[in-house]
Amino acid sequence: MIKYKRVLLKLSGESLQGERGYGIDPTRLEEYALQIKSISDKGVQIGIVIGGGNIFRGLSGAAKGFDRYQGDQMGMLATVINSLALKSALENKGSKARVLTAIRMEPVGEFYSQPKAIECLEKGEIVILSAGTGNPYFTTDTGSSLRGIEIKADVMLKGTRVDGVYTADPEKDPTAKKFDKITFDEIYNRGLKVMDLTATTMCKENNLPIIVFDMDTPGNLEKVILGEKIGTLVSN
Question: Is 101 a member of any domain?
């Protein structure tokens, strides 16, 4: 039984680089496309937001002397590149996919609107929501929270390379312990870095639960959709 009918899948740009350290790893892209297709074929409606950190990150650019406003615009364009790559990979697997952009750039992608996104989802298309919110000073975490709320998703699925939320960074602290579930308030009080505060607050106030899970293990996305207890559930 499918537990979630409509989801917002948040992917990091860095995850697309695989072992390459930069850009897009074709093997990782294909793995993601297969996982996404598998749940789409089960009737799940999927909206996707993907970051651009494998190409350019606005905050990092600002730290190196880039103007923050223009750096964030560059980061938004990087998300469009990743979105087009994912769309192509999905179509190669036989799925119908569409890129909607928060910044007008036809014919690269169609301009985003909430009614358009929902219409496409209801037709069974995988909708990739790119260019963040269309505004600088907002992360793709915030963009995914906003889009998840707008498309009325049942849950946000945050696919990472870590299998959930821990008391500390498990890659740095071997004593870190994993949470099976945690509240938004506990995230605040413990200072855990699940998403940025703006994104977390939006999810809390609009009662959009988040499941943080390891997307890099093939089959995990389908397990989450079927309700298996993997990853960490963040909710009110």
Answer: yes
In-domain check, residue 28: yes
- Whole-number pLDDT of residue 18: 85
Q: Which long-range contacts (CB under 8 A, 24 or more apart) does 176-181 make?
A: 178/232, 179/232, 180/229, 180/232, 180/233, 181/232, 181/233, 181/234, 181/235
- Token pair for 187: 């995230």
Reported as a single tens digit per residue, the pLDDT across 82-117 is 999 999 999 999 999 999 999 999 999 999 999 999
Residue 209: the pLDDT is 97
What is the DSSP pairing of strand 178-179 with strand 165-166? antiparallel
* Pairing outcome for strands 126-130 and 181-183: unpaired
DSSP state of 167: S
Residue 28 falls in which region: left (phi positive, over 0), alpha (psi -120 to 50) or beta: alpha
Return the CATH number at 30. 3.40.1160.10
**Range of 174's domain?**
6-235
By CB neighbour count within 10 A (0-12 exposed, 13-18 middle, 19+ buried), where does 118 fall?
Answer: middle
Structurally, the chain folds into a number of domains equal to 1
Taking residue 198's Cβ as centre, other Cβ atoms within 10 Å add up to 15
- Give the whole-angstrom CA distance, residue 140 versus residue 146: 9
